[in-house]
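Worked example 3. Consider a protein that binds heme C.
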Amino acid sequence: MIKLIGPMSIALALGCSNSVVAGDASAGDQLFHESCHACHGPAGIGVSSYPKVSGNPIEYTREKLIAYRAGQKFGPNSALMIMMAKPLTDEEIENLSAYLKDAKYK
Ligand code: HEC
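Given these inputs, the predicted complex is written out as structure tokens:
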């Protein structure tokens, strides 16, 4: 299996014409509340067996989501996350990672 994980591959995947490499946190915010909120709670604070997903470095969240998307298992409930990560694009992962880094429950 060829692994293309890391900031460079993301930058390439987003296209060289796009000078803004950083994710769009407000787009990530919107997507999070549509797709992730139900399990991970408002601002990703975590709910019972669903882990807290906010406050982590961008690289951490990005690599987790890419790994889940590729079908990698971590904990006992990875199947849920693999299902959720499958349809995400690189750009959506970048936006979600940017949002979750500083997401706070207000
Ligand atoms: C159906 C419930 C559910 C939904 C919806 C869901 N998740 Fe998860 N998520 C989980 C569970 C359960 C885990 C822990 C999985 C495991 O055991 O490996 C997890 C783990 C994670 C992790 C890794 C946490 C860590 O530190 O290891 C991240 C990041 C994450 N989710 C982000 C998201 C994002 C972003 C979305 C929306 C696209 C999302 N999740 C939607 C249930 C869900």
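Take a moment to read the result before moving on. The chain has one domain: 7-102. Residues 11 and 17 are 10 Å apart (CA to CA).
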